Every structure is written in structure tokens, then in C-alpha cells.
Amino acid sequence: GLQVQAKDGSWLDVPCDFGNLIVNIGDMLQEASGHYFPSTTHRVVNPDGADMTKSRISLPLFLHPRPDVVLSERHTAGSYLQERLRELGVI
């Protein structure tokens, strides 16, 4: 199932209860919200026990604003993307 990483580095299971809707926030929305909405490091692992038989639906949706959109005093969407790509060693 879905797990999120806590500040201490441990992994926490996200409950898979009927009717739940989980929204993972990305880095750009974190920047645009002044860090009000934190970006979460997350992963998906095969669950154990009774959770192994529960169904989940995953619907990823990735949105990216135009490069000139202002995210914060420090960044436009374009400058933020360039910084992140440099940090990841992509460019």
C-alpha cells in the first residue's frame, strides 16, 4: 500500500479505508503555497495480511504551470523546474 515518509525518516502506512481520497502534494505546489501544503516523499509497497486483498485505485495527475507563472518571491515555475532538474543531476 501507500506509505509516506515521516520527518524522522520512518515510513508510515496510509490507511486504505473505503471512501478515502489521498492527495499527494508535489514540490511546486509546496513552493506556491509558501510551504503551507508540504510535499510528501512517498512510495508504494505490497501490503501484508488482510490488506493484501483490498483494492486500490490510483489516479496520478501531474500538472505543470507555464514557465512564467510566479510561484513565490524566489521562483517562477520555469526557474523552479530548472533548479530541481539541476539538483537531480538531469541538467
From TrEMBL:
Q: According to the lineage, what is the superkingdom?
A: Bacteria
What positions does the domain Isopenicillin N synthase-like Fe(2+) 2OG dioxygenase occupy? Answer: 1-65
Which protein are we looking at? 2OG-Fe(II) oxygenase
Q: What organism is the protein native to?
A: Alteromonas australica
One matching Pfam family is 2OG-FeII_Oxy
